Amino acid sequence: KLLKEIFNSADIDKDALLSIQELARYINDRVKQHIEQAIAGNSAMFIQVDKSPPDGLITWEEYHSYFLKNHGLSDGYVNDHDEKKHKGLDREIKEAIMRDRAMWSEAARNDPYSLTLDEFLAFKHPESSAANMLGIVDDLLEKFDRDGDDVLTEDEFATLPDYDFTPLFGDETTIKKQSKQEESNRRKEFVHLVDKNKDGKADRQELLKYVDPRHPRHSLQEAATLMSLADANSDKYLSLNEILKKMELFLGSKMVGTAKSFHEDF
User: Fold this and answer.
1) Higher per-residue pLDDT: 233 or 160
2) How far apart are CA 198 and CA 190, in angstroms?
3) β-bridge mates for residue 153, sequence order
4) What is the pTM of this model?
5) One-character DSSP codes across 61-82
6) pLDDT per residue over 100-125, tens digit each?
């Protein structure tokens, strides 16, 4: 029923088929909605957690207490338990605590013991955090900006540095051919998706828009993947029947399980 409702919402021209454009548009709308809700909900949750004391910072102890209470643990357990063993907790909750600890370490840029409002957003919703996106831009510049001028040219963006042609499969000629195709694709990507002001360079602002999950390219890539895996008759459209036959694929995608899919990505 859920997939049928989503299918009907995505089917803009009501021809009982989804084109890749309809699929991508629907996914992009879902992504934008998810990020807007994550940012709006982050502030409210921050205030709920920031209690002891309410000082504009969340400590691990504050968050951990909030987490345990949210999972039905008593005040007695929350205030007095073995932090390392967590006796009595089921495996799923223990694994969630371990994931939270790892994510906390990633998000805590200034102080390992506390998070600011934006760091808390990076902790709970890394896909929505401006600071996290800036970090991705830094990684792009570090990887591709050979002359260190803090912008990327088409050549820098298109050519992978120090590419090793040692074949992982096939022969060296095949690997080189694949590399040339990849370079051609990246050049097209730079011209059409990255260099928005057409000055031959991509500055931080352009790169920030490029890596933003709300950029349509991400949704188009996801739509293309879903299409390739579910289009059984290869007509470049998806019917409801084709989607239902790949139910697990779509339920785990950003088309349906947007939040879950993002958190698996990160």
Assistant:
1) 233
2) 10
3) 201
4) 0.74
5) HHHHHHHHHHTT--HHHHHS--
6) 999 999 899 889 999 999 999 999 98
- Residue ranges of domains in the chain: 131-211
Structure tokens at 111: 């102080």
Distances from the Cα of 265 to the Cα of 42, 213, 259, angstroms:
19, 11, 10
| CA separation for the pair 201, 215 (Å, rounded) | 19
What pLDDT band is residue 169 in, cutting at 50, 70 and 90?
low
Give me the CATH code for the 131-211 domain, please: 1.10.238
Q: Is the dihedral of CA 107, 111, 115, 119 positive or negative?
A: negative
Concatenated DSSP letters for 139-176? Answer: HHHHHH-TT-SSSEEHHHHHS-TT-----SSS-HHHHH
Residue 194 has pLDDT above 60, yes or no: yes
- Position of tokens 């059984």? 232
Q: Give the Cα separation of 17 and 34 in Å (integer).
A: 25
Closest Cα to residue 239, out of 16, 5, 88?
16
